[in-house]
Amino acid sequence: MPDFYFSGPLALYVHIPWCVRKCPYCDFNSHEARGPLPERAYVDALLADLEQDLPRVWGRRMESMFIGGGTPSLLSAEALDRLLSGLRARLPLRPDMEITLEANPGAVEQGRFAEFRSAGVNRLSIGVQSFNDEHLRKLGRIHDRRAAFAAAEAAHTAGLDNFNLDLMFGLPGQTVAQALADIANAIALQPAHVSYYQLTIEPNTLFHQSPPTLPDEEILDAIQERAQAELARQGYARYEVSAYARENRRCQHNLNYWEFGDYLGIGAGAHGKLTDPAAGRIHRLWKLKHPQDYLARAGTPESVGGDAPIQEADLPVEFLMNALRLVEGVPATLFEERTGLPLAALEPALSRVRARGLLETDPDRLQPTTTGLRFLNDLLQEFM
Q1: Which end of the chain has fewer CB atoms < 10 Å from its terminal CB, N or C?
Q2: Residue 11: CA atoms inside 13 Å, Cβ hemisphere, count?
Q3: Are residues 49 and 179 in the same domain?
Q4: Are strands 243-245 and 193-198 parallel, antiparallel or unpaired?
Q5: Residue-number span of the structural domain to which 147 is assigned
Q6: pTM of the predicted model over 0.85
Q7: Distance (Å, rounded) from C-alpha 170 to C-alpha 10?
Q8: Tens digit of pLDDT for each residue in 83-111?
């Protein structure tokens, strides 16, 4: 049995499952809103859900919060304020902690940015994906490039300068020049953070049923290499496989995931990961996915879709598949702190990947080399 002596920081993920229209590449738990959202009932359900989970985290302070979806910015400012007020009444929160809200470009939502800030949101993550209208159409997005520019400008106007722009590359028919134009447009809007990730075809999506033609590997490599260079030149340091940030603007909530910290998950389909030092276990638990099922059972044991301990044999790769996404890696001591296992549990794979040039040789850090970061799946395969 692992011997835990430090369970690490605690974060909160809140899932809002509704969106205006399901995108063909999206495999998240999102459902098209048909009519007004049941805001009051859903906020009540979220708070009841939290109360049911509180005994698992007594005495621990919440360090960050991420409200994702779906499209959380579809919520009214009043509903968001009631949610955040309810959370503050039930949880000890770190003063001035990072509270991120996902938002999609659209005139209705942009008008709410100042109200969201008044409610307590201090960071936005705006799902732009592209500034090319043709690519946005192929991605099934409901906004155009003008709305994308307007959303970023509205964030600045509202005083929410700490915002992320989500961008995709490897889009259907995308050229290197078009991808670099997206990067240039993003930089011009002066976000604090850029998430830049490759479009992948996921199961249970419309794109999986009818796959579009995507750029070949040579184009993808050229896009990634030149985009990374331009982001670095403009002051956006790459700190994770797909994340680039200005100084002191790394996403604290996502860092907690990558450093194998704990988090509660409330909302339809929300996942959590919690350490139980007394039992020597780390649990993953998740809530019912469908909004109607969740609303009917929130706050009861029946709202839990599953609760399963991570097996001891799986802990090393579970830790590494998160930690090795970080460009700087993590201190070697973090492995034992977060898994309860000795570093020796990673041998002999640790020696093999260092010999292959996939992991830096510093014994005090678990850090991928440039090659290891590029071929992360090959690196992780050695520990499976």
Answers
A1: N
A2: 27
A3: yes
A4: antiparallel
A5: 10-256
A6: yes
A7: 34
A8: 999 999 999 999 899 999 999 997 556 67
